[in-house]
Write a structure and sequence with these properties.
Blueprint: E1 2-7, H1 17-25, H2 28-39, H3 45-54, H4 61-69, H5 77-86, E2 89-98, H6 99-109, E3 113-122, E4 125-132, H7 139-151, E5 158-162, H8 168-171, E6 176-180, H9 184-187, E7 192-194
Parallel strand pairs: 1-2, 1-5, 2-3, 5-6, 6-7
Antiparallel strand pairs: 3-4
Length: about 210
C-alpha cells in the first residue's frame, strides 16, 4: 500500500474556496490578499485563516454549501486520482479550507478520505468561527504521520502534492514531493515541480 496526499485549494480544485465564498459578500479582494500572504509564507496560517473566516460572518450557510458543491476541479484531477489508486495508492485530501468543499469533491473524485475544517453556523448563518483538523501550519505534517503510522506506510511510499506554505509540514514526511503551480516557498522543498495546470503531469514522475 502507498499513500498520496493532495492539498485541495489550487491543487485538486482550481482556485481558493474562501475566495469563492467571499465573492458572495463582495469582499473577494480583501480575502484574496490575505490568502496570498498566507500561501507565500509571509503570514501565520492560523491567524490568516481565522481572520478570513471572520470576514464571512453573516453569509447564508445554505448559500455557502451551494457554492462549495460547484467548485471547479483542477484539470486532470479525476484521471490522476484514479490512476494512482490503480497503482495501489490510498489517495486523500488535506485542506486548510472547509469540509463543505472537500467532501463533495471527495465523492466526485473518489478520494479515500478528506481532512479539513468546519465552518460554524448558527440560525442558518456563518458565525465567523471555525474549527477542525487543519487549522495550523503544522497540521498537515501531523496528520500525515498519523496516517502513515495507522496504515504502516513509509515516507518512501508517500507522495504529497501542494502549492502553498501550509503544505511544507507534510513535505517533510514524503520522498515524492510535488510543488504544483506553487509558490516559491514550497518549490524549495519539492523534488518534482509542475508549472502547468494539469495534474496528470504528476503521473510521469510515478
Amino acid at each position: 500500500m502507498k499513500l498520496a496526499v493532495f492539498d485541495f485549494d489550487s491543487t485538486l480544485m482550481d482556485g481558493e474556496t474562501i475566495d469563492f465564498l467571499a465573492v458572495e459578500l463582495g469582499i473577494e479582494k480583501e480575502v484574496s490578499a490575505i490568502t496570498e500572504e498566507a500561501m507565500s509564507g509571509r503570514l501565520d496560517f492560523f491567524e490568516s485563516l481565522t481572520t478570513r473566516v471572520k470576514l464571512l460572518e453573516g453569509l447564508d450557510y445554505d448559500k455557502a454549501v451551494e457554492i462549495c458543491k460547484n467548485l471547479p476541479l483542477m484539470n486532470g484531477a479525476k484521471e490522476t486520482v484514479s490512476a494512482l489508486q490503480e497503482q495501489g495508492y490510498k489517495v486523500v485530501c488535506f485542506s486548510g479550507g472547509f469540509r463543505i468543499g472537500t467532501t463533495p469533491a471527495k465523492e466526485v473524485l473518489g478520494l479515500d478520505a478528506d481532512f479539513s475544517n468546519i465552518l460554524h453556523e448558527k440560525d442558518g448563518k456563518l458565525t465567523g468561527l471555525i474549527g477542525g483538523d487543519m487549522m495550523f501550519s503544522s497540521s498537515k505534517g501531523d496528520m500525515i504521520q498519523r496516517i502513515q503510522g495507522l496504515l504502516g506506510i513509509t515516507r518512501a511510499d508517500t507522495l504529497v502534492v501542494g502549492d502553498g506554505a501550509n503544505d511544507r509540514s507534510m513535505f517533510t514526511h514524503a520522498d515524492k514531493r510535488v510543488a504544483f503551480c506553487a509558490h516559491d516557498i514550497l518549490k524549495k522543498e519539492a523534488n518534482i515541480i509542475i508549472d502547468t495546470k494539469d495534474l496528470t503531469q504528476i503521473l510521469k514522475h510515478i
